[in-house]
Backbone:
């Protein structure tokens, strides 16, 4: 008997040694994070190396906000892709839409989580919630809170509706834990509602696309109000955020799809054309990102740059920030060029590696974008320093571990696509 | 003439746009099926309440952690 190469819900059943090990390692990471959070919540943000810029020679924002930008960007990217696939009913990308849907929710959650951690005393979330009706009238931060809540509600609704439809079309035996999910999303479900559900899923896809567009406006508003500082051009930051988000969103989906295909060989749902499609999008947005970075950095390195701008330009191109800056550029540029040169036929293994490289590169740049203007403020003679503390590293890497943990658990509960029972009944 | 606060405009004309698009198309797009559309809206409402509730719960949890005698 040859191994199956079509999708068959096999990821829901059984727990392999490798899976247990992965869950175990991630869970230890989650426990470490919890410890670090208790530490920080009890003693306050003084446990981080964050400080006032200028007078204290520090950076008010660090790893938390940099990684927040990375997660928020990925949330918008995966959201846009999910909406695009559902609205245009690109059925061959069915599984990518589901994976993107799950990631959009988890990334939105992780982004919100890192903001809450950066509030200092995180129970301030209660103040934010109880004062929302007043702050929303004038505060871009309250608009962001509103947007993130909408994002999580919409992605979860999409997950529920699309699963309801999938379950109505399948009559497979499901493992107990998945049948609980089925029961939750199938309240009052009948076969007659399939045409309406299909239409609702499609229109909710348009809702997600509109949400991704309004999402593109929010960081522009949010970062725009910070005002111009050396190396930080408010209005431009919104565009950088969106492009980074689209690139990392696609890279995240390509990496996930690549790993799943290597592990389960689902050649029907994660076919070669689907993998190449992802590679093509990744390369396209990789080039856009590189152009945006070039434009961004040109302002601070030419002789036209005012003095304070030039200090940042020097630090980035040849100075103290250069290793990080060039690492981030190369980590995106090299895989982008290889993907394009090979006409997106690098193979699943190399394409996955390219995705990882891009994710890492953009993560470094997201952090730099936050820190650069804060370390070189508009004050003569003052240059700040910032070295993240162990607490910051544990909580930041822990946020990534928590996101992975949630995804790996979701993989055991949620079918990634419909299985057409009629097609395999002759086995 | 006084304009309403900028946040009111942002909320009504930008942030809530996806909600309008989704609700209008669920209710009025073909095929029309009030029952299924209502179920979808109820699911969305319940999820919204759960999300805001969970955020508040997180706030309370942090308050407890901050005041634990550790």
Residues:
């Amino acid at each position: 008997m040859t191994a199956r190469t079509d999708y068959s819900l096999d990821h829901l059943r059984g727990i392999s040694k490798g899976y247990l090990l992965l869950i175990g390692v991630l869970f230890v990471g989650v426990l470490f994070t919890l410890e670090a959070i208790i530490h920080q919540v009890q003693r306050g943000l003084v446990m981080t190396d964050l400080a006032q810029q200028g007078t204290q020679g520090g950076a008010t924002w660090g790893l938390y906000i940099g990684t927040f930008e990375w997660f928020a960007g990925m949330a918008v990217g995966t959201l846009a892709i999910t909406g695009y696939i559902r609205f245009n009913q690109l059925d061959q990308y069915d599984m990518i839409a589901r994976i993107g849907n799950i990631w959009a929710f988890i990334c939105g959650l992780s982004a919100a989580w890192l903001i809450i951690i950066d509030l200092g005393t995180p129970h301030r979330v209660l103040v934010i919630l109880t004062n929302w009706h007043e702050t929303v009238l004038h505060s871009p931060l309250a608009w962001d809170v509103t947007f993130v809540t909408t994002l999580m509600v919409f992605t979860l609704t999409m997950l529920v509706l699309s699963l309801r439809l999938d379950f109505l079309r399948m009559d497979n035996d499901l493992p107990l834990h998945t049948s609980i999910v089925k029961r939750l999303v199938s309240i009052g479900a009948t076969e007659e509602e399939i045409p309406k559900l299909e239409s609702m899923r499609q229109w909710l896809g348009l809702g997600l696309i509109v949400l991704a567009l309004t999402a593109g406006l929010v960081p522009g508003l949010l970062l725009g109000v910070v005002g111009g500082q050396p190396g930080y051009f408010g209005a431009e930051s919104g565009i950088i955020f969106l492009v980074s988000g689209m690139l990392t969103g696609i890279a995240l989906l390509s990496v996930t799809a690549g790993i799943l295909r290597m592990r389960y060989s689902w050649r029907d749902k994660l076919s070669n054309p689907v993998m190449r499609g992802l590679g093509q999008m990744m390369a396209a947005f990789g080039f856009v990102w590189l152009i945006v970075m070039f434009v961004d950095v040109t302002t601070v390195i030419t002789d036209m740059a005012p003095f304070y701008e030039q200090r940042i330009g020097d630090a980035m191109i040849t100075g103290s920030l250069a290793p990080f800056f060039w690492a981030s550029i190369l980590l995106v540029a090299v895989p982008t060029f290889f993907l394009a040169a090979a006409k997106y036929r690098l193979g699943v293994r190399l394409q996955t590696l390219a995705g990882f490289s891009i994710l890492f590169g953009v993560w470094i740049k997201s952090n730099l974008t936050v820190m650069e203007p804060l370390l070189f403020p508009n004050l003569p003679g003052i240059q700040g320093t910032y070295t993240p503390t162990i607490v910051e590293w544990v909580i930041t890497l822990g946020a990534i571990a928590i996101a992975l943990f949630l995804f790996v658990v979701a993989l055991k509960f949620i079918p990634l696509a419909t299985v057409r029972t009629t097609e395999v009944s002759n086995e | 003439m006084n304009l309403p606060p900028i946040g009111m405009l942002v909320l009504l004309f930008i942030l809530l746009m996806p909600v309008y698009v989704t609700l209008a198309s669920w209710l009025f797009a073909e095929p029309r099926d009030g029952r299924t559309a209502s179920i979808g809206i109820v699911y969305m409402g319940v999820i919204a309440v759960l999300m805001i509730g969970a955020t508040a719960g997180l706030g309370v949890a942090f308050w407890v952690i901050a005041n634990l005698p550790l």
Summary: Chain B has a mean pLDDT of 91. Residues 22 and 41 of chain B are 10 Å apart (CA to CA).
